[in-house]
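In this section we walk through a basic example: taking a raw amino acid sequence and producing a predicted 3D structure, encoded as discrete structure tokens. The instruction is simple. Fold the sequence below.
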Amino acid sequence: MTTNTRTLFTGAALLLSLAACAPGPEVQVTDLSPQHYAPTSLIEALTAAPSRPYTVIAGLRIEGSPGTDRAQLLARLRQKAAALGANAIIIHDESRTLPPSVNYNPSGGNYQAQGPQTIPILSAEAIRWKQP
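The resulting token sequence is shown next.
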């Protein structure tokens, strides 16, 4: 293998590894608690407020691009909540659907129809259980 070929393969491998680590959508955090907690590892995902006493420690929000898997966004919310020291998150689905559209493609000189697209948006309260 020549030096140029080896350099080309090394460069291609580097680009592929960087693409695999590309960051996804960022979680926006609204800090609601003056107290800071140690990170946790197990985060419950709830769709309604629990009956058990809790404290809201932060508000979280994440928005993906059309076609983004909801599970991916939920995993990022859980990861951020764990870093904040939460025990659970109360999830609210705020996704919205864009209507169908027709776009002009100037390079081809034709129109392209695009069906409705859903933009996944999740917000959540990161909560911590109150001790008895």
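Looking at the output, two observations stand out. The longest strand covers residues 54-63. The longest helix spans residues 3-20. In the next section we compare this with other chains.
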